[in-house]
Amino acid sequence: MKYVLVTGGVVSGLGKGVTASSIGLLLKACGLRVTAIKIDPYLNTDAGTMSPFEHGEVFVLDDGGEVDLDLGNYERFIDIKLTRDNNITTGKIYQSVIDKERKGDYLGKTVQVVPHITDAIQDWIERVAHIPVDGMIGPADVCVVELGGTIGDIESMPFIQALGQFSYRVGAGNFCLVHVSLVPVLNVVGEQKTKATQHSVRALRGQGLTPHILACRSTMVLDENAKGKLSQFCLIPAENIVTLYDVPNIWHIPLLLRDQKAHEAMFKVLNLHGVAKEPNLEEWTCRAESSDLLYEPVRIALVGKYTCLSDSYLSILKALLHASVDCQKKLVVDWIPASNLETATAKGNHDAYKAAWKLLKGADGVLVPGGFGDRGVQGKIIAAKYARENRIPFLGICLGMQIAVIEFARSVLGVQDANSTEFEPHTKSPYIIFMPEGSKTHMGGTMRLGSRRTYFQTKECKSAKLYGCKSFIDERHRHRYEVNPDLVACLENAGLSFTGKDETGQRMEILELPNHPYFIGAQFHPEFKSRPGKPSPLFLGFIGAACGQLDAVLQRSSIVDNSLSKGVDISPVKTYRTRTTTKTAYRTAEYVYGSCNGLHF
């Protein structure tokens, strides 16, 4: 097993996750099997109880693991399925060591950070690295390990010590360290400054780790003078210093690494010459290079609670992008804070209210994502009502589906007090209820999590057709509340169709309005399994409906399904779907897709 460690210096938010994902993709394109591990030094056991404002979205894996959003990047870039153990946290490590101490596994020893914590970290990495994640038998060839945080952080020190020991444990030729650092350009003089990176590398060496490759983040290509300084003062060969400069979208990053021969530098360190081949990134290159060519926009109104931080909805944005690329449209996401659509805002902040409604009315499609708590709920209900009554394509995810049920009950059934027990515990019309198996005393890991099966009730509905007329699908879930099964009949009698249910038939998974151009809600999170070139079917249908291509999308889905069932080669369909992309504006104020804390990555 070969290991590539990715660390970061100077500042956080440089794009270590994208860099690690790009390294994984590049190595996979060289014919190697790749897995990935993310180390998060925080004390939380996992990301499940953290606010999106703290750490971005919580990404959910097939096994129910609630993990850091970078694992979503790994899955999307490398096209693998990770496990909860691929996300290491300080909380997990300390918990495992303390559990062993309580059982007496240390035989009376004094349990210390060194060697017990550091050994536990090394054992965890080595164990998880050998778990296959690509659907094949046997371990991968290379494990990419990303260390979260910045060199010098107090909470990272046990991990840095462990990784220093680990480099000797696996031996020379099996360990390669890629250090991502910032090379700023001061506007005053217009010169690339290398001193911060020099200090970062010195700090890394002082803690027992020596970088083999330096990946420099900058607004422009690293000039020869700056590269020479870094090579001289950081003691790294000039050919092992690469520039990750600002690009229109992050799909260009693997290409930057390839063009600067980063794979050859890694092959040399890892003794992989003769084993790996030259990278084949033809389809990926077509997708990245055509990103600037799409100009016809499709405007999506994202009505949510955490709209001031785009990372809160990262997987949704990626899924929208994948679908827009497939439909050859330029994605424009208009962020609408849900509470700004409410009448209370009209009284207190009329400008915000007016701006929110202007965006909603100008949208080609309306998306209401998941979330927790009652803030902004009325605004989401208003958005769902607007989309339903004005026949605007609508996609509701998790809470968004539940919102659609509440709105339908209020507006169509006339049940004005219809509500969820999440927002009104004592409501007399509980259309959304707490799941019986849920815990009301513990929050972490107690939701309905991970991959669950959904059975289509008919193959004539839009959702079934988008999934290729399959009998069932497996999608990832993360929720505590569900549609009240006792009230399903009255909803269906009024025209709301629950086209997907769980194996018991009592848990509603997908809803549709048959007489609407596209009005679909999903209890699961389809965005977590969307991939570049393989967009989520529900997102593809949503974007297709928003830009007037739904019939064509449904026809393609049918062709793919029929071809697969007959064993027919469908490569022309695949080629069509992967050779287009988009340059995306997240906000109307020119927020460029892929930017990382202001640095356009």
Automatic annotation (TrEMBL):
Q: In which pathway does it act?
A: Pyrimidine metabolism; CTP biosynthesis via de novo pathway; CTP from UDP: step 2/2
* Enzyme kind, highest EC tier: ligase
Tell me the ranges covered by the Glutamine amidotransferase domain, including all copies: 309-543
Q: Which domain of life is it from?
A: Eukaryota
Q: Any idea where the CTP synthase N-terminal domain is?
A: 2-272
GO BP terms: 'de novo' CTP biosynthetic process; CTP biosynthetic process; pyrimidine nucleobase biosynthetic process
Keyword Cell inner membrane included in the entry's annotation: no
> Which of UniProt's keywords are assigned here?
ATP-binding, Glutamine amidotransferase, Ligase, Nucleotide-binding, Pyrimidine biosynthesis
Report the EC code(s) recorded for this entry.
6.3.4.2
Which HAMAP family does the protein's record reference? PyrG
Query: Member of which family?
Result: Belongs to the CTP synthase family.
Could you identify this protein by its name? CTP synthase
Q: Which organism is it from?
A: Glycine max
